[in-house]
Amino acid sequence: MSGTSAGSAAVPCRFAHYFVICGIDTETGLEPDELAALHRWLEADRQGRDPDTASAGENFEQSPLKRTFKSKVLARYPENVEWNPFDQDAVNMLCMPKGLSFRTQADQREPQFHSFIITKEDGSRTYGFVHTFYEEVTSPQICSAMQTLYQMHNAEQTNAASSSSSSSSSMDSLASSLDDGYSPTSSSSSSLSRAAGSYDSSRDTLYVSKALCLITPMPFMHACRRFLAQMHSAVIAATAPPLPLESYVYNILYEVPLPALGRSLKFHGIYEPIVCQRPGPGELPLADFPLAEAFSLLGVENLVQVFTCTLLEMQILLYSQDYQRLMTVAEGITTLLFPFQWQHVYVPILPASLLHFLDAPVPYLMGLQSKEGTDRSKLELPQEVQHQPGLRSIFTACLFCRWCHKATTAQRRKDRHRQQTEHLTLDNDLKEKYMQEARSLGKNLRQPKLSDLSPAVIAQTNWKFVEGLLKECRMKTKRMLVEKMGREAVELGHGEASITGLEENTLIASLCDLLERIWSHGLQVKQGKSALWSHLLHYQAREEMLAQQADSPAPRFLERRKSDSSIAMPSLRVSLIQDMRHIQSMSEIKTDVGRARAWIRLSLEKKLLSQHLKQLLSRQALTKKLYKRYAFLRCEEEKEQFLFHLLSLNAVDYFCFTSVFTTIMIPYRVVIIPIKKLSNAMTTSNPWVCVSGELGDSGIMQIPKNVLEMTFDSAFRPHTHISAIFKCQNLGKLTTVQLGHDNAGLLAKWLVDCVMVRNEITGHTYRFPCGRWLGKGVDDGSLERVLIGELVLPSGEDDSARACRTPPLQRSPSQGRRISITSLTGRDTTQIQEGIGEAVNNIIKHFHKPEKERGSLTVLLCGENSLVAALEQFFHHGFKSARLFQKTVFVWDFVEKAVAYMESADQVGDLQETTEAMKMTCQSLCHYFNAINSTSRNIGKDGKFQLLVCLGARDRLLPQWLPLLVECPVILQMYEDTAMLRDPSTLNTLISVLEALHDFSITLEASLVKGINL
């Protein structure tokens, strides 16, 4: 568990973060809601009606009491919370999604309650709970402005009646406007003024909506509803509450904590106590929205249909007159998904001004308010979605596989395209004129016609959308880098490490959704479910056709990347279309959306995403054919910045393709590079390899000894090595290679430099250093070695990318390390002790990291600077010179002699007087030694010692074996008096250090313990 760093304060667990009041700003007056007006324009255009006529009809023929006016955040407490910054626009929009609402004494004015959710960029949620009521308007200016608007409305009706006097509805409108003139004593006027939608400031009392809101980190809906209702009661009560209202606000913001897990919390409201409960760790998650009400509103059959669409990740739009019912059903659906979570767009209440979000080409769950008296039969649904007659009249649910954009004729589509083009080509002076008119709407009281406003508003809205996509791309790529770099990102100044924690898969899925939205913006015609994959298919067809016309064996889209391993590996082709073919050959993927996501993951893992997309967009003729002029992909400056943000992801390593598609078959190229020395560059024996990774191993694969390849270095010197390609199921990140041969032929001794393995799809190349002999009678007599891999840094990466990469895995033991062990003249006891302490500490830190960040335990046990390497140095300190023995002596020789002594002592009864515990320890050492020594594997003496250390660490026996080895008389023959192994204090220190590993469960990789049954 990660704690808070020493300079940062912990996030307080408060019940609520903000108390907010929204309503009318009497200083600015009545301001028309331009976004809502734009929404009406776009909706009319979507339905094929004349946008200007439709909007004008809805706007000017409508009573001012039913028009949309801007609300504002009048007050909030506190001003800002560090760990949850206040989003004023979002809170205002969701507190009053329709804007300000006006009423008179003749209208219904019952308080309403609803809740909402704000989802932040990092995926975290904040909950809002709103109590809306109507407050009398006391400002004479507001009342006068409403009176003026109403008179203008009557004048509009009069003009309409004059042009069509034969229409009875126009006559009624004219009579109404005349009666509502300046004759307060007229009885007909008096009766009409009280009709719905009428207003006379001399007789009517004007009311306006106002909202009290609590912003909380958790959805305690019932508790917040009761608190806000009591707050409203205190506001309108004739007598003051026991304490000032500010005291209650301060209490819930600063003094009421979040309930502890599994506990209930009771705190004092204004008039009565309030209770809430938080589930414990072993219980179901908090679900304070009544699930039974969701079933009651929709009915079981309809809710099951909606739930099915949710599981299929479709686009779902909920439709209701009541905001709280939208939240109840949306939260009910997501609650039923447990233990899964809805990872896509989730907006239970979609403000009218954001209706264009329904065009998003991604799965979503949204809620939209319907107007009173709306005729559902006028709602256009896709042909594949049937109307649900069984839905309750109080709630309508529309199940959308996609939002239907149908123009009645091709000419209408052409006209709309021409309008959009004209909107975007307005000169700056005209744009400024339109925007100036828009800003003055509030001052002039009367709204101009949308035919004058729409070009500038549409153009401005499109550019804001493009800028929003670019900003989102910047934020997502930065978020992915910070998450991947972890603590290193903190050191580089990217904030506290506590901001990380999202799963890598979630971040990459979010990036895939963003790319789909970018590629869907401004499409001429939608083709298929994935706009990105559709574009890629067009590109593929075009390039293949050009290659055929040129009659070229190597199409132009093929490049060659420099060899990742100098002279050892042939260069790997870099090809956008080749990567597409890899994806197209994967039978596991069934949809275009899945293929697009797989292609993105593969490109990201190969650090080619930005390069591939740049190549895709370089075919400008194709882009112009597929996309409208205002599309994001045709905005040159934004497109370049977008590609630059994606390029920054090359600074870190991703395995997002390899780790997800675990069952696919992957070709691997294996190259065995010998050391050209003493004519032993090659061998007459039959070599074999077994490649292991995090997902499994390839099994033993025989490599024909006559499979030779010759390459040349920069000085044109020839180099010969063995190379072969084999295909097996995805092994994941590679960890070890078992290399061996059968010792056959006249040249059976083989001096191997390293083994190179490359994933031929992702291009990841691993180097497994060896630097030692394989053969009987040479080195330690090993015919098989287990090599530890390190990921090779691609030679094409620049210095900045190298500096930010994840550190490479530690390598396997090499001949260089063996030489340093036998000499040891340059290393004192302090250095050896420090090496052991560091090796043990690295293993302990490994287990304290989150599981996804741990890496390979095999590297820490057997790699360079590992536990085995450190203990070898300890055992070699003071080891008598090989000249005394007339041959090379290994640590395993000492262990072998010690075990032989123990077994002979046990047979003659010398161990009878020892304690039972000591005898058991002695038997365990002999048992492990014999099991390792009798294995069919020819792993050599160093390999056997490595295996003994690994098994001893796994089974917590190492600290018990060391005293037994020290007490054997053999130590006097093989070690100097100054050896660390013969120093009691040094030995006790080593034992205490090794005992620190007993707190952890060490699991050994199968390649290490193969053939050992212990």
UniProtKB/TrEMBL annotation:
Q: Outline the segment boundaries, as ranges, of region: Disordered.
A: 160-197
Residues forming the RUN domain are 502-662, 858-1009
Instruction: State the compartments where it is located.
Output: Membrane
Residue ranges constituting the UDENN domain according to the UniProt record: 53-563
Q: Which UniProt keywords apply?
A: Guanine-nucleotide releasing factor, Membrane, Repeat
PROSITE patterns in the cross-refs: DENN, PLAT, RUN
Q: Which domain of life is it from?
A: Eukaryota
Question: Which GO terms fall under molecular function for this chain's record?
Answer: guanyl-nucleotide exchange factor activity; small GTPase binding
Which Pfam families does the record cross-reference, listed alphabetically? DENN, PLAT, RUN, uDENN
| Residues annotated as domain PLAT | 666-788
Q: Which InterPro entries match?
A: cDENN_dom (IPR001194), DEN5A/B (IPR047278), DENN_C (IPR043153), PLAT/LH2_dom (IPR001024), PLAT/LH2_dom_sf (IPR036392), PLAT_RAB6IP1 (IPR047277), Run_dom (IPR004012), Run_dom_sf (IPR037213)
Of the GO CC terms on this record, one is: membrane
The similarity annotation says: Belongs to the RAB6IP1 family.
Q: What is this protein called?
A: DENN/MADD domain containing 5B
